[in-house]
Amino acid sequence: MAKPVVHFEVVGRDAEALQHFYSAVFGWDMQQVMPGYALVHAGAEGGIDGGVGGDPGGGAGRVTFYVQVEDLEGTLDEVKKLGGKTAMEPDEVPNGPRLALFEDPEGHLIGLTTATASPA
User: Fold this and answer.
1) Alpha carbon of 7 to those of 51, 52, 60, 64: distances in Å?
2) How far apart are CA 38 and CA 40, in angstroms?
3) What is the pTM of this model?
4) How far apart are CA 112 and CA 90, in angstroms?
5) Where is 38: in which H helix or E strand?
6) Among candidates 110, 36, 113, 115, which has minimal Cα distance to 79?
7) Sign (positive or negative) of CA dihedral 16, 30, 62, 36
8) What is the pLDDT tens value at each position of the chain, 120 positions in all?
9) Helices first, then strands: H and E counts in the chain
């Protein structure tokens, strides 16, 4: 796969309830990394890492997957050319990668991420 899916995210109104639900249904071990947000590590079983938590905007929630790309801005430009639109401009995650969000032509929210943290 040229640009792999490397992360998923499930966010909604009640972070604690969502974390409990996914932990109970799938046996996911939740690692709290900030209030209302936990990481899920795929571990030796394979799969991709993800996150479960509250929607910072207070919305109804969403499920999003993140694609790893080298150039967030260039990818967002291509998205616009092909009928999508930017939903969140590139931003830094503290001690993490850069992220951006876009909507495809049908309004599905997709995440973009870089492979590593940007140099300080």
Assistant:
1) 8, 11, 20, 9
2) 7
3) 0.84
4) 9
5) strand 37-40
6) 110
7) positive
8) 688 999 999 999 999 999 999 999 888 999 999 899 999 998 777 889 999 999 887 878 899 999 999 999 999 999 999 999 999 999 998 888 899 999 999 999 999 999 764 443
9) 2, 8
The candidate with the shortest Cα–Cα distance to 98, out of 120, 82, 80, 114, is 114
Residue 65 structure tokens: 């997957």
Sole residue written with tokens 């795929």: 42
Q: What token pair was written down for 56?
A: 């910072």
Token output for 120? 């300080």
In one-letter notation, the amino acid at residue 50 is G
**Beta bridge mates, 3:** none
Which candidate, 28, 120, 102, 104, places its Cα nearest to that of 112?
102
Longest distance between any two alpha carbons in the chain, whole Å? 42
